[in-house]
């Protein structure tokens, strides 16, 4: 069974691009365009990894990551946090995400992050 990635991204082009990269690596992909129900969305989709945009409607990336990492049933799920924020390095330091990527991100960096957080090659 394929590993699943849940991408929280409100920019259609970035969501589609990220999803295509993940699918080419053999992952199943689900998408959300807002974080109003982030905890329910994650519990419903049961992903093996979450990709979270910072500037996303709803709770926003930073608050959503904090909620997921502080909830026992979702704390184990690795999270890639990405943003085009000019001060993203400092913002990322305050987050509990596992990997941080600045947008626009390099394709190889994104693929490497997926493979490091879900190392099972049989995806």
Give a written overview of the molecule:
There is one protein chain. The chain has a domain at 24-101: Response regulator (Rossmann fold). It contains 5 helices and 5 strands, in the order βαβαβαβαβα. The protein has helices at 12-24, 38-45, 61-69, 88-93, 107-117; strands at residues 4-8, 28-32, 49-53, 79-83, 99-102. A 5-stranded parallel β-sheet has the order 2-1-3-4-5, sandwiched between helices. The longest helix is centred in the N-terminal third of the chain and has 13 residues, at 12-24.
What is the element layout, followed by pairings?
Blueprint: E1 4-8, H1 12-24, E2 28-32, H2 38-45, E3 49-53, H3 61-69, E4 79-83, H4 88-93, E5 99-102, H5 107-117
Give the helix level as a range of percent: 25-40%
Strand order of the biggest β-sheet: 2-1-3-4-5
Instruction: Tell how many strands the DSSP assignment holds.
Output: 5
Q: C-alpha Rg, in Å?
A: 13 Å
Tell me about the largest β-sheet: 5 strands, parallel
* CATH T-level fold name of one domain: Rossmann fold
In the CATH classification, which architecture of one domain applies?
3-Layer(aba) Sandwich
SSE succession = EHEHEHEHEH
- The CATH C-level class name of one domain: Alpha Beta
Beta content: 15-25%
Q: Residue-averaged pLDDT, rounded?
A: 91
Shape summary: globular
DSSP helix count? Answer: 5
* Helix/strand class: alpha/beta
């Amino acid at each position: 069974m394929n590993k699943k990635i849940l991408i929280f991204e409100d920019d259609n082009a970035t969501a589609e691009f990220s999803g295509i990269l993940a699918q080419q690596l053999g992952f199943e992909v689900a998408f959300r365009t807002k974080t109003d129900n982030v905890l329910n969305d994650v519990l419903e989709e049961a992903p093996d990894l979450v990709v979270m945009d910072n500037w996303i409607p709803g709770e926003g990336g930073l608050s959503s990551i904090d909620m997921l990492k502080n909830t026992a049933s979702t704390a184990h799920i690795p999270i890639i946090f990405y943003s085009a924020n000019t001060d993203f390095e400092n913002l990322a330091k305050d987050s509990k995400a596992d990997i941080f990527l600045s947008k626009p991100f390099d394709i190889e960096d994104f693929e490497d992050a997926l493979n490091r957080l879900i190392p099972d090659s049989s995806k």
